[in-house]
Amino acid sequence: MSVHLITGYAGAGHVTSADAGRFNAGICGNSKYVMGTGTQFAYTVESNNEIKIGSGDLVNQGRHISIPQNSTETATLQNGTQNRVRVDAIAIRYSKNTGTGVESASLVVVKGNEVTSGSTPVRPTLQSGNIFNGDVVDDFPLY
């Protein structure tokens, strides 16, 4: 089928997440954006191992992902080692199950590599995928 009426009545469900994603990307752009809603994912340090991430909306390559208004998510950091330092990253991960096609998003903490105190730790590598090209994982870095 070369022409597909997306927002018209088709007699059955026919709008896909890819349809909505392309529409969002057409409005917002093809990249990654935090929208001006909620607290825009503002964080609060609760302890050395716990950071609360506030509400907000983002668009990652057309996929709209949200922490609902008046809600928070908790990022849990692993304990460090004495006399060592590291940098962790907090991201929202888009993923797609290749068997079922089900897409999801979750808050993840990507642990960095520890180095000797006094050295400069390297930021951890996040997963970078192109959802439009069929990649099944992509991280949206928050902190």
Mean pLDDT: 95
Taken in chain order, the helices and strands follow as: HEEEEEEEEEEE
Count of β-strands:
11
Q: How far is the N terminus from the C terminus?
A: 43 Å
Cα Rg: 18 Å
Pick out the low-confidence regions.
Answer: none
| Apparent shape | elongated
**Helix percentage:** under 10%
Q: Give the helix/strand class.
A: mainly beta
Number of helices: 1
What proportion of the residues form beta strands (DSSP E)?
35-45%
The biggest beta sheet reads: 3 strands, antiparallel
Give the strand order, joined by hyphens, for the main sheet.
1-4-5
Q: Would you mind describing this structure in some detail?
A:
By secondary structure, the protein is mainly beta. Helix content is 8%, strand content 36%. It has one helix and eleven strands; from the N terminus they run αβββββββββββ. The strands form four sheets. A three-stranded antiparallel beta sheet has the order 1-4-5. The chain has a three-stranded antiparallel beta sheet with strand order 2-3-6, with no helix packed on it. Strands 9-8-11 form a three-stranded antiparallel beta sheet, with no helix packed on it. The longest helix is centred in the first third of the chain and has 12 residues, at 17-28. It is elongated. 13% of the residues are buried.
